[in-house]
Amino acid sequence: MHFKKYLVGVAIVVSLVGIGAGLNKPVMAHKVGLIDAEIELGMKDFTFDIKVLRSDGGAAEMKDGVLNLKVGKTVRIKMKNTGGVRHDLHLGKDADKGNELYKNNPFFPYDMFELDVASKGDLTLTIPDKPGDWELGCFQAGHYEAGMKKPFKIVK
Ligand SMILES: [Cu+2]
After folding, report:
1. What's 12-155's CATH class?
2. Would you state the pLDDT for residue 33?
3. How far is the centre of ligand 1, averaged over its atoms, from the C-alpha of 133 (Å)?
4. Which of 9-40 are b and which e, b meaning 16 or more Cβ less than 10 Å from the residue's Cβ?
5. How far is the CA of 33 from the centre of ligand 1 (A)?
6. What separation in Å is there between the alpha carbon of 60 and the centre of ligand 1?
7. pTM assigned to the model
8. Which segment of 17-31, 60-74, 85-99, 114-128 scores lowest on mean pLDDT?
9. What confidence category does residue 29 fall into, taking pLDDT thresholds of 50, 70 and 90?
């Protein structure tokens, strides 16, 4: 598990827990509040599976197969790497594969999460007032090109 850029000044609560092998790293608790929705985000070779587990007030909904997240809501993303290789999660748009990031990132300065094989972690985000079409993707070498990306929307 590795943070390229640390989270500063963003309403985010993160805890990442490795399965087995003694990895147990609560990373930070920047904001504690009510969770409006919970999403399961499976990371596989080479795709993401998104499932809404719980949602109050339209905080997180699948519409035509696309995850919609509502501005101002607090959403917990329960990530799990069930693949055979390391994966990461980036959120943004305009992929810059050379630099392994999105040029536009609604959660800046939060950048990305990397999950080792058989690891899981919870990421809690307050959805910023940046409505529009966004994407989540993995920039491990070759993964984005192999289709490891999914659109999502931020809606008012
Ligand atoms: Cu990947």
Report:
1. mainly beta
2. 58
3. 21
4. eeebbbebebeeeeeeeebeeeeeeebbbbbe
5. 30
6. 23
7. 0.79
8. 17-31
9. very low
